[in-house]
């Protein structure tokens, strides 16, 4: 098993995207990249803790490649929006890939560069690629939020 961590706006819809993939054994929403330990949702929403809302994906690399996860990440949000996705804004909604090892960093960088060179976007891709830091699971009511409500997507 391997772990991938992505921030692409509100974590509810991002979790649902990855949760349903063959080869993904589990997902968890939480916070990463901030300056405080064990942040709460309320703290993260103040846009002062430095954390991003993220989805941590545990996957079987022999079934689904890390590259495929990164491609889906880029296809399912706007990587040119700085610190926002749709109506949600603040650094907690930033576009970020947190890599666990050098191979993930290389793959994320290569795929970001390929997307930038593709001409798909007229604006620069602002997705950050950063080493994974402490992961803090979000409160239980955020876990599989859409599934618990019989929904498959958010308002975006």
Q: Identify the strand order in the major beta sheet.
A: 7-6-1-3-2-8
- Count all strands and give the number: 8
The gyration radius over C-alpha positions equals 14 Å
**Name of the CATH superfamily:** Peptide methionine sulphoxide reductase MsrA
Task: Note the main sheet.
Answer: 6 strands, mixed
Query: What's the multimeric state?
Result: single chain
So, CATH architecture? 2-Layer Sandwich
Tally of domains = 1
CATH class: Alpha Beta
Mind explaining what this structure looks like?
The chain is 28% helix and 25% strand. It has one domain: Peptide Methionine Sulfoxide Reductase, Chain A (2-Layer Sandwich), CATH 3.30.1060.10. With 156 residues, it is of the alpha+beta class. The chain contains 5 helices and 8 strands. Helix 4 links the parallel strand 6 and strand 7. It has a 6-stranded mixed β-sheet with strand order 7-6-1-3-2-8, covered by helices on one side. A two-stranded antiparallel sheet has the order 4-5. The mean pLDDT is 94. The longest helix has 17 residues. It is globular and about 40 Å long.
